[in-house]
Here is the input.
Amino acid sequence: MRFRLGRGCLACTCVLLAGCGGLTAEPTERAMVVPSPNHDARRPNFVVLHDTTRDNVEHALKTLTDPAREVSAHYLIARDGTLYQLVDEKRRAWHAGVSYWGGNTDLNSASIGIELDNTGAEPYAEAQITRLLDLLRDLQSRYKIPATNFLGHGDVALRRKVDPSRYFPWERLAREGFGMWCWQPDSSVQELPDPLLALAVIGYDVSDPASALAAFRRHFLGVDAVEDASAVERRLMRCLIQGKRNPPPA
Here is the structure.
């Protein structure tokens, strides 16, 4: 046990002094350690996808491994499908930042971050998406991540991020079991009267309604727009909420 001796207490070092000021101990030092075998590693419950917004993977690697930049991800996938692991899966990578989804306010602590080498203004390479799907299957198998918990950075960091871009093939991922999608025709679903409430149920932070709606459109419609939610979009919201309980069609 360590002690800090206050001035004037040096003569007291040979005895236990209840009244000699300055004697303290760290909280962990006061604890009695009794190891229990009943524990295991913490596991991620989300996957957050990103764009590097770079022209080449070398630039992205430099950024993601630069101590001064204080940004990282668990994985980076190049355009040619090369997979790089940058952070151990059990460690907390710095990729989501200030974030929110369905009440979770620290996605960094609960997720695997995957960077896709893409400028944000180009289609995603087939080799890259193929490798991504392989990685997602592995992660889902090992960590039992729910299908609805595969998200984009723009979904969880409204106002700050818009990636992956509107070119990202979310429907393709959803058909493989990674993410939400609407599997019913619009005409078969009744529209919701309150789109803001619907976005909150889906998982979005609705403190900024315009940003939440913009992120929803980018993810599920692949468009950028600023007008109020249309009847078609309200039906899509209801369909997504229902789809959280229903698997995609065979």
Remarks:
- The domain at 46-175 is CATH 3.40.80.10 (Lysozyme-like).
- The mean pLDDT is 86.
- The longest helix spans residues 126-143.
